[in-house]
Fold this protein.
Amino acid sequence: MPGLAQRLADVKVSASAAMTARARELTLQGIRVIGLASGEPDFPTPRHAIEAAYRAALEGDTKYPPQGGTEALKAAIQRKFRRDNGLDYAFDEIIVGNGGKQVIFNAFMATLDPGDEVVIPAPYWISYADMAKVAGGVPVAVPCPQNNGFRPRPEDLAAAITSRTKWVLLNFPNNPTGAMPSRAEMRAIADVLLRHPHVWVMTDDMYEHLLYDGLEFSTIAQVEPALKERTLTVNGVSKTYAMTGWRIGFGGGPAQLIRAMFNMQGQATSGVSTVGQAAAAAALDGPQELVRERAAIYQRRRDMVVEMLNQAPGLTCHRPEGAFYVYPSLAGCIGRTSRGGRRIETDTDFVAALLEEKQVAAVQGAAYGMSPYMRISYATDTESLTEACGRIQEFCRELR
């Protein structure tokens, strides 16, 4: 049999996707699994966005799309960046991709040469490191300890940047921890980045509108305008508007970088679904009250989940500032044995036993670059969350 490319030798299948698939297998066997592994809002897409897509299809907007995004969506993205972030981007500084993931992938493929380093605060979304590897880069993790709220310390970030660093990637509110630095902390991060003009800066703002307790969002090019000329600001409609399946992400950045990403996208997928772009434009330009209402619901879920997990023996759950994840420490459970006889040596052992014995799907912290933790998504209904947390408490009480 012909061989496969070496570029995938050190690239893993997404742990959250694998856990979701295993949960689906158990469900097909008639076992009721409560899935807390997937970062997908349980709310419906806003009706006005769906209606915009329907109108676009009826009006014949079903041909090949412009490779970098329709004018209508780019205009809506311009307005969004100005309204929410105080950032101005021209049309040639905006690109639309098949989800935010493609925008990030385009950027890495367009800029990374073999051995270039990508500095990523950890814990981090599973795909960042693997996308860097596929593009020939070397991911460099910067640990963000729980005692600092999982937020990066400027001195640690500064120590990780070398002459080989090509990118520093920031993600706030963070997946998997929900961490969000204050404006002052973002200012300190910006000061570090200003000292390294050879480094591109990427900020993944996908959870921008899911912030709690009155906190305000700020993105790095907004905090320090001098960084805008080498910053790619990535966002999308998946999390904010519950539009994961529409696959619409976008980025704003320097025209030179966007041109290179445009070229990369042309070799991979070309343009993005026309009806999806119509729906995204409607979501960005439409009423925003629904976003705030849903964020309030997420906050109530967060409070309940944090309280219940902190009542589970051996778990310690930090209260996140945003997103819809919690990242509890499992340190008090390591080295113990489950009721079903499974020895818990790692967080991977913990989540595997939890799924098999209590039918709750979560994702091990090892997948996000920091152990022993697990990621739990509270983007599901309150009744299911309450039952799942009760099962986790029971699982922990039974450990010996």
